[in-house]
Amino acid sequence: MTPPPLSKVPWTSVLLLAALGAGTVRAGRRLRAIPVLPVTPPAAAGVPRAAGWRLLTARGVEPDPATFLAACAFAEREGLRVLDLLPADLPAERALGLLRLVDPARYRQDRLAAGRGAGFAVLVTEEVLDRAGVDPGGPRRDPAELLALTRRLKEYAADSTGLAVAPGLRCGAAGEPGGPARAAELRAQGLPPGALAAAQLGGLALLAGVAVRQGRWGAAAAGLYWLQPYLVLGGPGSPLRPAGLGRATAARPVRSLGAGLRTAAAAGRDPAPDRAAEAARAAAYREDLASGTGRFLEPRRTDCPWCGSGRLAVRVRVSDLLQGKPGRFTLERCEDCRHVFQNPRLSPEGLEFYYRDFYDGRGGEGAGTVFGRLGAAYRGRAEMLVPHADPASWLDVGTGHGHFCNAARDVWPLTRFDGLDMGEGVREAERRGWVETGYLGQFPEFASKLAGRYEVVSMYHYLEHTREPLAELDAAATVLAPGGFLAIELPDPQSRMARLLGPFWLPWFQPQHQHLMPAVNLREALADRGFTVVAEEHGPAHQGNDFFGAVALAATRLAPDPDRPWGPGPTPRVRLLGHAVRVAALPCFAAAAVLDTLRTAAARRTDGGNAYRMLARKDTR
C-alpha cells in the first residue's frame, strides 16, 4: 500500500499526539519517583523524634499522629529540612499540574529550583522557620498560602527540600480549587494565571479543531488528552488515588473548559494591592520627577574614560526600555580603543532612581525568578576554575541575592562563599545560607579591610554597572591573595547582534550599564595590575536572549506596565492597548525563542556570542 504523501499527513495532530504521549510518559515516570511514607514509622528508624519539627497544614486537613511521626522519621533519615506531603487522594488535575512542574528525581539536588508542593501539608524544622521569619502559629492557611510558603522555604533549605506521598493524609474540603482560588494558587507559585488560562483554552480549542477536521489522528490526540488522568494515575502501582478518578477522567474536557474560563475571569481581577504602600511609592516618584530627569545626569565628558582619547562617536540612543521610567540615554564609543560608555552618565542620585524597584521592592520577585533560571550559566562560570584552582575562599562581587554562590556549591562544596552588593538582597542571601558573609556597600570601600583574604574574586555581569570599572579592578587586586584568581563576565559590545538589533539589543541594558569594554581592553587593564589571563571564553558565555529580549523590550516600549507608580496611571484604553500588544507579541516571542536557540548553537560553535568570560591569576611577585 502506497503511503500518503507528506503534504497529506495531519502534522498538527501528529505533533499533538507526540507531545501528549511524551507528557503522559513523563508524568508517569515522575509519579513513580515520588517516595511514599510508610503507614507507621519503620522499626529500624527507632522512636521518631518530633522535637524540632513543625507540621503546617491547610484548613480542613487533619493529619494523624502516625503520619506526623512517619514524616519526621523519613525527613531525618533523608537529611531533609522541608518536606511537602502529598495527600493520597490528591485530585487528578492538581497531581498532573504538580508533575508538570516538578521532576522528583532532580528536585532536591536542584538548588535553584522553585519550591513546589501540593499545598496541603508541609513539615519544616524550627530552625528553617526561624531563619525564614515564618511564624508557625496562628490560624490554618489556605492552599495558596501554603504553596507560597513552600516556595519561600525552599530558598532556606536549597538542597534539603523534598516531596513524599502520605497515605494517611486526606485533602479534606480543599480538594479542587475554583477560579479565584486557582488563580491565587498560580500566583503563589510565581505563575501567571491569565497566560496559563489562555494557553489552556487555546489548547482545548486546538484539540477540538483537530478532532473534528483531521480524522483518526485528530481523534487520537483528543482521546489521549481525555484519558491522560487515568493513564497516569489509575495504574495498580500509583501511589496516589484521587477520589472520583473515573468521573474526573470522563468529564475532563468539560471540567478543563470550565476551569480555564473561571481562572481567566479571576485573573482579570487582580488581588487588591496595598493601597497605602502603592500611594506612598507613587508620591515618592512624583516628587522625584517634579524637577525633571535632567538632574539625574552628570555633565557630558569629552574624552574616553578608558584611554583618554577625545575621538568619541554616538553608538546608540535609547530610553529606559527595562522599566519605562522617563529619560533618554546615550552610549558613546571611543573611536580609538572601542570602549562604549554612558555619556553623560547617571549621577549617584540617578542610579538610585533607576535601580529602585528593579532588583528589590516592586520588581524583586521577577528579578529573582530570572536569576533562578540561570543554573547552566552559573555552573559554567564555576567550572571555569576547575583546571586552575581548588579555592577555599571566594568573594562574589555584585552577588545580588546570592544565586551564583548557591548554585556554585554543587561544583565547589567545600569552598566558603561570601558576597558583596549594594542592595539589601545580600543580607537575605546571608539569611538563606547562600553566602556565609554578606557585605553591604561599595567594593572599593571594603578593599583595605579585606586585603589578601580571598583566593577567588568573581565579578559576573557586575563591572558594566559600575561608575569606575578601573577602580573596581584595583580593589580586586587588593583583596586577592598572591596567586589568587579574578573571574569576570561581561557583555561584548563587539557582538554582531549589537549592530543588528540596535537600541533593542538587551545587553545595552540602559540606563543601568555604564561601561561596556571589549575583551582586548580588559586584558590590557588586567596586565597593568599584575594579572595574567589564563582562560577566556566567548561562546560558552553567550546568553541566549538576543531575539527574545528584543521582543520584550519592544513590547515594553509599545505598552509599558500601566500600574507602574512612576507612570501617568492606568486607564481602560491603556489596559486594552497592553492586552492587545501582549497578544500580538506571543507569536513574536515564539519565533524569537527559535531564533535564539539557533543563535546559541552558532555562538557555541563559532566562539562568538554576546558576552565573554575571563579568568586571570594575580602574579605572586
Automatic annotation (TrEMBL):
Protein name: Methyltransferase type 12
Record-linked SUPFAM superfamilies: S-adenosyl-L-methionine-dependent methyltransferases
Pfam families attached to this UniProt entry: Methyltransf_23
Native species: Streptomyces nojiriensis
InterPro entries found in the cross-reference section: SAM-dependent_MTases_sf (IPR029063)
